Amino acid sequence: MTTYLITGATLLDGTSTDLLIADGVVAERGSGLSASGATRIDASGLQALPGLVDLHTHLREPGFEQSETVLTGSRAAAAGGFTAVHAMANTSPVQDTAGVVEQVASLGAQHGYVTVRPVGAVTAGLAGERLSEIGAMAQSRAAVRVFSDDGKCVHDALLMRRALEYVAGFGGVIAQHAQEPRLTEGAQMHEGPVSAELGLGGWPAVAEEAVIARDVLLAEAAGARLHVCHVSTAGSVDVVRWAKARGIQVTAEVTPHHLLLTDEFARGYDARFKVNPPLRRDEDVQALRDGLADGTIDIVATDHAPHPRESKEVAWQEASFGMVGLESALSVVQQAVVDDGRLGWADIARVLSRVPAEIGLLAGYDAPFEVGSPAHVALYDPAARSVFTADRLRGMSGNSPYLGVELPGRVIATFHGGVPTVLDGELRPEEEVARG
Amino acid sequence: MTGLRHLLSVRDLDRATAIRILDVAEDMADVATRAVPKLPTLRGRTVANLFFEDSTRTRLSFESAAKRLGADVTTFSAKGSSVSKGESLKDTAQTVAAMGVDAVVLRHGASGAARVLADSGWIEAGVVNAGDGTHEHPTQALLDAYTMRKRQLGDLSRGAGLDGLRVTIVGDILHSRVARSNVWLLETLGATVHLVAPRTLLPAGVGSWPVTASSDLDAAIDDGPDVLMMLRIQSERMHAAFFPHEREYARQWGLSDERFGRLGPDTMVLHPGPMNRGLEISATAADSDASVILDQVTNGVSIRMAVLFLMLSGGAEAAA
Question: Which of A303, A340, A381, A391 is catalytic?
Answer without folding.
Answer: A303
